[in-house]
Amino acid sequence: MLAPIQDSQLINYITSKRYIKNSQKLYKIPVVGNQYFEPLPKKLPKNIHIMIKNDFNNKHDKNALLVKYKINNKVIPVGFIPRDKVYDFRKIKNKLHYLGIVTENNNIAIISEMIS
Does residue 27 sit within a domain? Predict the structure, then answer.
């Protein structure tokens, strides 16, 4: 199940960088399989567009959701929503506004805000 972020240090960092109406509605969505794609740059610009799309060509998981970002008209794959999170993610994906991508110890996550 996806749950709101509880890490106060991360919430403070995000809210200091962006105008967030309600920090109680911030979500950190893990991304897996990033080792199969280009490494993320050390610093991503703020104006990237994050996309999460069905990956119908994935021979390992017909329900896979591929995470990509677009910058300067180039679409770059990052990884996948974990298989055990896909069902929960699909229920709320239309209510999420993606704020950015974070990395911690080679782990990648999408930070998003729940919108009404």
Answer: yes
